[in-house]
Design a protein that fits this description.
This protein is mostly helical. It is built from five helices and three strands. A three-stranded antiparallel β-sheet has the order 1-3-2. The relative contact order is 0.15.
Length: about 120
């Protein structure tokens, strides 16, 4: 018999737990992907970390109430609890996602500039 996973109710969601869950870069990337793509299998995130590490991150986010985990046979599907988060803390998730996207664009821009500088320096030699 499959065990059921605990998910906090909407009323049990705590701001400190949610912010802590969103403070890790891997977990934030998972949340960004779920926000963009919707529900997805655990295996869709293997490029981000090892299975064991992902299991830890999924557990932290589930316990905080950021994601819902749906069991379907041997597979686990993750989804973002957008409605619950919005009802409990209006605007929080949108602000976090917006900030994370801006930060990601700035990081990509910086790495692109660094790459262009390295290529230019190599060509000058």
């Amino acid at each position: 018999m499959a065990r059921s996973l605990h998910h906090p109710s909407r009323e049990q969601l705590a701001l400190s737990s949610i912010l802590e869950a969103l403070s890790d870069p891997v977990r934030l990337e998972i949340v960004l992907r779920l926000a963009d793509r919707g529900e997805d299998r655990c295996s869709a995130f293997l490029a981000l970390a090892s299975k064991a590490n992902l299991s830890y991150h999924f557990g932290r986010m589930r316990e905080a109430g950021v994601i819902r985990v749906r069991l379907d046979g041997p597979s686990r599907y993750m989804s973002l609890r957008q409605d619950d988060l919005e009802a409990r803390f209006p605007g929080l998730l949108a602000a976090v996602l917006s900030g994370a996207r801006r930060e990601g664009r700035a990081r990509r821009r910086r790495s692109g500039e660094d790459g262009a500088r390295r290529r230019g320096a190599a060509a000058a030699r």
